[in-house]
Design a protein that fits this description.
Helix content: 25-40%
Number of strands: 15
Oligomer: single chain
Amino acid sequence: MRAEVMRAIEVRGGAGPAEALTLAEVPVPRPKANEILIRVHAAGVNRPDLLQRQGLYPPPPGAPDVLGLEVAGEVAMVGEDAVRWRVGDKVTALLGGGGYAEFATVDARHALPIPNELSYVDAAALPETVFTVWTNVFERGGLKAGQTLLVHGATSGIGVTAIQMAKAAGAKVIATSRGAEKAARAKSLGADLSIDSSASDFVAPVREAGGADVILDMVGGDFVSRNLECLNTDGRLVQIAFQAGATVELDLRRIMLKRLTVTGSTLRARDPDEKARLAAAVEAHVWPWVEAGLLKPPIDAVFPLERAADAHRRLDEGTHVGKVVLTA
C-alpha cells in the first residue's frame, strides 16, 4: 500500500526568489490509464525551473504546479494502458512538471529504461538535455558526421550534453563559454576548439577554424548577428533560449546569400504524441551512445530535496559545469 501523502517542493506565494522554495506535504498523484507513477530517487534541476519559480514560465495546461522536468526512479504503479512497464522497473522520464517530489506521474511513453545501470543521479541528468539536443541539433539542425557544431553556453547542462552527443555522432565541436576555467572544462569534455567569449569575440576564431554548419544558441541578443557571420553556406542556426534578449535585428541579405536556416523550438509545450515520438527517437539513436559510455553529462552538484533553494542558487550563480540534481 503506497502512502497517500508525499514530500514535495512548493513555491511559497506562487512566485519568488530561491528562498520561496519550501518543503510541503501534498497528496501523492494517481496515474491515469496511460501513465506510470514513479518513486523519484533523483530529479534534474534546469534553468526553466528557475523561470517557473519566478512566475515567468507557467506549466502547460494539465501539468502539475510542482517544479521539475526530469526524474529517475522506480515504477511504483502502472496504469492499465501502460503495458511496457512493470512495478519495480528502473526508469528515467521527461515530465511536464512535478519532479521535485517523492512521486511523479508521467505518460508511460515519455519514460525510458535506465541504461547500463547508471546511478539514479546520472540518469536524472539525461532527459531534459538529451531530448532538447536531439530535437534541436540533430532533427532541426541536421548535424551530420564531419560537420561542425558551434555551441554557446558550453558548460551548461545543455552545452555539455551537446558536446558529447555531437562528438559521438562524428562531428567537430567548437564551444564558447565565459571564463578561462569554463573554456578549459569544455575542452576537456571533448570540444575541438574552446573559446573564452568573455576575453575575445568568437567570430574570428570560428571562421579561422572553418566556420560552423550548425549553431546551438541559448544566448540570443547580439550573439545572433555574429552567429550568422560564423555559419557556412547552407548553415543552420537553432535558437533554444535568449538570455541576452529575444528581440534582435538581422541582415536578411546575409541569410539569403548564404542560404541560411534560422529556426528554434521549445520542448515542454509539445503535445504528448510528439514527445512520445521524440522519446522513441532518443531511445533508438542516443541510448546506444549512453550504453557505449560516449554520453555521461558531468554532475556539478547534488542536493537533497529539502535544499532545492540551494540547488537554484547554484544555477543562479552561473558557475556550475554540467548538471545540478536533487535526491528525494
